[in-house]
């Protein structure tokens, strides 16, 4: 009886044991780059409701704003630990939801457990799970999967609860709105809804999107569209390539792509270890692509990632379609059949590859955060006494970056915000930054800035070194 229980719920047992350990480890990763300015960072605005809760930048993400408000009450005690715990616990819940969805869709217990473990440990999730500001991605997917479970249920007020879950997903992050279309598409693929209901529910989904667009339009906002968010044919093509590689190819991209960390031998090992599993699922089972459910899953995957493909796609954005990829894997496992080599060799090799990559990504993320902390402590120490304002002058050395794992030192420094954090946001009260191309002109530019009388000091950031000019 115990053996039967373990066989049925082995993935959930593993996740339950691993989650506290991952929470503890993730708490050591410090903010870098966007973490310092994201809506989930400590918020001290007296106009919290209008400026952050209702609309902020390009976004309407009230749950991010609430998180920022919470950690702003005691930044050094809560930030980023609170954020990390929310993200890791959310990822754990998402893995459990994958298990439930697979069970509802009648996948075999083996496929359900393998798929759940894949989702939980895959390196494709790590850019979200290890990020301080990964909360919006995590909970957008969480509410999206809740919406799907509601949609395929027979509970009363199903449509009302389904729409509510989609709204919550969208309020976590805009791509959550895509579950208004994903739910009926997947349900139709698995024959959980008929053609007439499918057409009606697609129209309801489009109506939900329209109502969201109207709400965005009438909210108070002042938006400047940055060039990186404007879609172009070249950008879309590049984003499609990024999506395919980060979603379907398991390899350590730090060792493969990051110039100063490059180790092609180790990258090749991680790829070769994962290759048999990926080959068995996505290539050897080519017949599965003729099935209605697989075609609908592929369409749902395209819908899930479309918002990012049209604007900005990075390793973090793979998470938006990861649950659908997991369902594709579950279908591939059941199609593959009971091959002992698959379960006792291919998948264990994939797990080994994932553990190696995840550990390396964790290490690089932690080191990036520590770099920013050391630079902040250096700036505070060299400044000596509190100042009200500091100008951060960054020397652009062409230092290579890769996603949130390997960031430029000046980005880890957060353009001076990391130094504010070190003083618990007591000083400097005001920071501004600018970038120059040559270190030779740094002193002259610093003297010119100081001569204006606007700033008390200039922090010259040259790689990891901070020079203070007063």
Q: How would you describe the overall organization of this protein?
A:
There is one protein chain. This protein has 470 residues and is mainly alpha-helical. It has helices spanning 2-26, 48-54, 62-71, 75-78, 81-104, 109-121, 126-129, 135-151, 158-172, 179-189, 195-218, 233-248, 253-257, 264-282, 292-309, 322-336, 340-383, 409-412, 417-422, 442-451, and strands at residues 389-395, 430-436, 457-462, 465-469. Helix 5 (81-104) packs antiparallel against helix 6 (109-121) and helix 10 (179-189) runs antiparallel to helix 15. The longest helix is centred in the last third of the chain and has 44 residues, at 340-383.
Strand content: 5-15%
Q: What's the count of strands? A: 4
Structural class: mainly alpha
Number of H/I helices = 20
Order of secondary-structure elements: HHHHHHHHHHHHHHHHHEHHEHEE
Relative helix content? 55-70%
Mean pLDDT: 88
Give the assembly state of these chains: single chain
Strand order in space, largest sheet: 2-1-3-4
Q: List low-confidence stretches.
A: none
Global outline: globular
Biggest sheet descriptor: 4 strands, mixed
Taking Cα atoms only, what radius of gyration do you get, to the nearest Å? 24 Å
Distance between the termini: 73 Å
Key attributes of the depicted protein:
four-stranded mixed sheet, mainly alpha, 20 helices, single chain, 5% strand, 470 residues
Short structural summary:
The chain is mainly alpha-helical.
